């Protein structure tokens, strides 16, 4: 069994994946310019399509799962420790991200993070669909090594640190000054692993991961969008992504959507959980109202 410290490394892995999913369309250019990714190149993340009935109409809401796992190799499924379900409504130009703490009890009874190690992405998708009453179309996953490499390749990410942080015996996070901070991959990992400096522990940590997702999306939109920089980015990503059931047309559409989706129009919400059996967390009654609001059009209006 992995130590809790090793498992917690996976918590950060999903934090950049909203951006990874939405900029995946830019990989089309990499495929055209460079061909398929080299078999010898390390895969930083994988994009998989699950809902074959999804039409991809410009105004049709859709859902995707951004999942960070703690697998130490590509062959190791790992626990699904960073869980973010994002609903996107292209017609409204809005989205909502629901963060699911890793110890939340799944509909089938075990902790939600266990289903990735047991059944991979299909198990996670089944449990989350049943929990929220939705149909997840795409899933994006990475492990902690892939996340660090991706963040470093992007030149780091600037995150608004909410308060001074010092966690020498846990995550290793040390940010003595609050405010916007440029983080390399390792430091972003430390920030998103930190639960000891926060009152609600894992619940706050899950929200912080969502904050990194939105910060990365905003940074990419505000950065150099010249053809040369775009080609550099897609060349990097194109060598380190695996796809399953996703064609180039879909990737291109997701990439275009990324450039139009204002991060300020993406709500970052951690689902309401409380004490459950043993160390499990239980979805609270108000969570069912949240899920119903989320399921009707991909956007939560009540918060």
Structure description:
With 303 residues, the chain is of the alpha/beta class. The protein is built from 11 helices and 13 strands. The chain has helices at 4-9, 17-22, 27-34, 114-119, 121-132, 144-153, 185-193, 202-222, 227-238, 248-260, 286-297, and strands at 45-49, 62-69, 80-89, 94-100, 138-143, 157-161, 165-166, 174-175, 179-183, 241-244, 266-270, 273-275, 281-283. The strands form 4 sheets. Strands 10-1-5-2-3-4-11 form a 7-stranded mixed beta sheet, with helices on both faces. A two-stranded antiparallel ribbon has the order 6-9. Helix 3 packs across helix 9, helix 6 crosses helix 7 (185-193) and helix 7 packs antiparallel against helix 8 (202-222). The N and C termini lie far apart (39 Å).
SSE class = alpha/beta
What value does the average pLDDT take? Answer: 78
Biggest sheet features: 7 strands, mixed
Low-confidence stretches: 1-40
What series of H and E elements makes up the topology? HHHEEEEHHEHEEEEHHHEHEEEH
Any idea how many domains? 1
CATH class: Alpha Beta
Helix content: 25-40%
Straight-line distance between termini: 39 Å
**Spatial order of the strands in the main sheet?**
10-1-5-2-3-4-11
| CATH fold-level label | Nucleotidyltransferase, domain 5
Which value, in Å, is the CA radius of gyration?
A: 18 Å
Label the CATH architecture.
2-Layer Sandwich
């Amino acid at each position: 069994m992995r130590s809790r410290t090793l498992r917690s490394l996976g918590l950060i892995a999903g934090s950049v994946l909203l951006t990874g999913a939405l900029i995946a369309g830019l990989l089309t250019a990499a495929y055209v310019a460079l061909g398929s990714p080299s078999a010898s190149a390390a895969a930083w993340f994988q994009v998989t399509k699950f809902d074959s009935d999804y039409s991809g109409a410009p105004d049709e809401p859709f859902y995707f799962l951004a999942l960070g796992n703690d697998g130490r190799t590509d062959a190791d499924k790992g626990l699904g420790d960073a869980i973010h379900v994002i609903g996107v409504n292209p017609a409204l130009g809005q989205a909502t991200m629901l963060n699911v703490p890793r110890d939340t009890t799944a509909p089938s009874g075990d902790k939600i993070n266990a289903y990735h190690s047991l059944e991979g992405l299909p198990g996670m998708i089944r449990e989350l669909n049943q929990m929220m009453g939705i149909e997840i179309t795409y899933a994006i996953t990475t492990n902690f090594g892939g996340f660090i490499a991706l963040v470093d390749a992007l030149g780091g990410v600037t995150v608004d640190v909410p308060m001074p942080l010092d966690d020498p015996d846990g995550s290793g996070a040390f940010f003595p000054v609050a405010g916007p901070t440029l983080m390399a991959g390792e430091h972003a990992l430390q920030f998103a692993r930190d639960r000891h400096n926060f009152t609600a522990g894992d619940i706050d940590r899950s929200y912080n991961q969502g904050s990194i997702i939105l910060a990365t999306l905003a940074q990419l939109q505000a950065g150099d969008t010249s053809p040369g920089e775009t080609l550099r980015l897609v060349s990097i990503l194109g060598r380190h992504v695996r796809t399953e059931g996703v064609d180039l047309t879909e990737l291109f559409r997701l990439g275009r959507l990324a450039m139009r989706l204002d991060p300020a129009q993406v709500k970052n919400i951690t689902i309401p959980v409380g004490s459950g059996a043993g160390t499990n967390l239980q979805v609270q009654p108000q969570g069912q109202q949240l899920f119903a609001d989320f399921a009707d059009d991909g956007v939560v209006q009540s918060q």
